[in-house]
Amino acid sequence: MAPREWSVVSERVTDAPFQLPLAVDLAAVWLLAATGALEARRKRYDVIGAGVLALVTGLGGAFLRDGLLLQGGPVAALRDGRYLGAVLVGTATGIWFASHLLRLRLALLLADAVGLALYGIYGSQKALLAGLPFFSATLVGTVNAVGGGLLRDVLTREVPLVFKPGQFYALAAMAGCAAFLLLDAELGVITPVAAAAGVAVTLALRLGSIRLGWRTGAIADEPPGP
């Protein structure tokens, strides 16, 4: 079978692109940055450490997407100073209002699930517009969704959460990205409907994992003791 003409797909996608409202995007960056600052506070870092963790947690997915995978010039978040402003506010929030944030754990989990879904779909669409095929676009969307947390864990010398058996997280993002791309690029469903379906898939898996205990398992048993 001849290779799919992805330039045609890109032209169709731009007819009705999936866009994150600026207020939602900035709010998500602020929230993620605040969780990064919370982690810095837990590890007793100084204000520079808190700022760095807030930056990579809030914008790390975008840095990996635009700077490493798509290489489309300067990272979009750096061209608009409001994103760095959201990181600064998130840093201050995580440092000075930690106790209030910790009491809102359920709300933070819900907001994180929504952000996971939205950033996954947004990254997948950007990959489509860059001409990448299905599996590559799924990878870019997943990295966009979980990249900030991955960089945070690497910098703090923790085993990245996405590597550990546990609740559906990266798997939920990947499934949502794949659903969006299948509907939008392969089956010709209009982009807003495909995006809504992809978001729904991610949310269903992520929230089902939190509420019902769905978990991934280790691929090998623990080695026997001496």
Question: In a few lines, what is going on in this structure?
Answer:
The protein has 9 helices and no strands. It is mainly alpha-helical.
Helix- and strand-based class? mainly alpha
The biggest beta sheet is recorded as: none
Beta-strand residue percentage: under 5%
Note poorly predicted spans: 1-12
Terminal CA distance: 55 Å
- Counting structural domains, the number is 1
The ordered string of helix (H) and strand (E) elements is HHHHHHHHH
Task: Note the overall shape.
Answer: globular
Number of beta-strand segments: 0
- Gyration radius, to the nearest Å? 18 Å
What's the tally of helices? 9
Helical content, roughly?
over 70%
Average pLDDT value?
A: 88
Task: Please provide a written account of the structure.
There is one protein chain. This protein has 9 helices and no strands. It has helices at residues 6-13, 22-42, 47-70, 81-96, 98-103, 105-129, 134-155, 170-186, 191-212. It has 226 residues and is an all-alpha fold. Residues 1-12 have low confidence and may be disordered. It has one domain (6-212). It is globular and about 50 Å long. The longest helix is centred in the middle third of the chain and has 25 residues, at 105-129. Helix 6 (105-129) crosses helix 7 (134-155).
